[in-house]
Amino acid sequence: MLDPRAVLQLVPGERRVCRTGELGQDLEGLAEVRRRINLPVVTGEALYSKNQFAEVFARRAADILNPDVCNCGGILALKEIASEFGDRRAVPSMAYMLGFFAMGLGGVFMGWLADRTSPRVPLLVAGVSIFAGGWLAVSGSEWLLYLGYALPLGFLGNAATFTPAMNNIQGWFEKRRSTAVSNVPPPRS
Question: Checking phi first, is residue 188 left (phi over 0); if not, alpha (psi -120 to 50) or beta?
């Protein structure tokens, strides 16, 4: 049986949630911990199947599920797990994935734009786009959520903040290669 004090000791610093990690496999103990502490309980990293996630829900052992994509069988397994609980959990996951996919595509465009102008231009585009994407995402429609994450938040927003930063770091490294390389010790033989 999990002891709530032992679980809380695993959470360093200011405690806003109780993360269980490997201890999350003791679902009976985890349910008891959840009843006895005044923090949201997060688990799922050590769960492998949709049956284990169903048992967490049945026992009301956690407030937040945080599945490890590698442990539970990949992105398709996450969709299957979500479908067991009414598919609605798949909607934000899909929006999040679209945002990252669009960020990868938008990074190429934003890198080109930063090279042709300056990093300020993509950052201005990012500021406006992140606002617009957030506004679209909370408008209530599932398709506007997808559109908000994909185009303004991912392709124009996040890509515009990440890519110019990488360009600036690369430019620093190219100008100061000898300084950067001199800080790396030679390999020992």
Answer: beta
